[in-house]
Amino acid sequence: MDQVTPPTYTAFLNGQRLASGLLPEVAVAVLRAQLTQHDHPLVFSDATGQSADLDLRGGEQAVAARYAVAAAVSVSKGRGRPKLGVVAREVTLLPEHWDWLAAQPGGASVALRKLVHEARRKGGQQDLTRRARDRAYHAMSTLAGDLAGFEEASRALFAGDPERLAAQMAAWPEDVRTYVLQLAEPAAG
Q: Quick one: 170 and 104 in the same domain?
């Protein structure tokens, strides 16, 4: 059975990578930086590239404990058949879709799993590439939206032109360039 890997995060302060890793460690590093700096660090989910707001009340131990519990809850399984990795969620379909699913061999769940497997097989690389591009753009727009070359770098990212992307980011802080390129890799997600 596959183990669920907890999500990782990366924090930046003034264009420099402050911390990267599991949320409890990143949150404590952000708290320490806020106590000594005038600027506020930015925290990003490495899985989505979106910024994350952290609750830093209560000191280092409280922050570490809060996010250790949050990470454990996000990794734990909910309803379904957890030992098999099955998770129950809601799906909303029209009545004719439910009728078609019910008539399939094995029922709705088996038919949906087959449809998902087939869609992933056919469009797997395209989906990975799209998610990587979106992930990189989320972080890039927050970290570098006001930097020189941002518009052209965005065009290069969406055009799938990594050489032009790297060239447009050449004047950006090294940690920002590295992180955007890391997120733009389809294998990174």
A: yes
CA-nearest of 32, 34, 9 to 139 is 9
Which residues span the domain enclosing 159?
90-188
- The answer to whether 186 and 132 are in contact (CB under 8 A) is yes
At residue 10, what are phi and psi to the nearest 5 degrees?
A: -135, 135
* Number of domains the chain contains: 2
**Using CA of residue 119, residue 120, residue 125, residue 126, what is the dihedral sign?**
positive
pLDDT in tens, the chain (189 residues): 445 678 999 999 999 999 999 999 999 999 999 989 888 899 999 999 999 999 999 889 999 999 887 666 555 545 556 566 677 778 888 888 888 888 888 888 888 888 888 877 777 778 888 999 999 999 999 999 999 999 999 999 999 999 999 999 999 999 999 999 999 998 755
Cβ pair 11, 30 in contact under 8 A: yes
What is each CA distance from 93 to 60, 80, 98, 103, 112, in whole angstroms?
A: 46, 20, 7, 15, 12
Residue 86 φ/ψ, nearest 5 degrees = -85, 130
Q: Which helix (H) or strand (E) holds 88?
A: none
What sign for the dihedral angle of Cα 158, 162, 167, 173?
A: positive
Residue type, 63: V
Same-domain pairing of 31 and 94: no
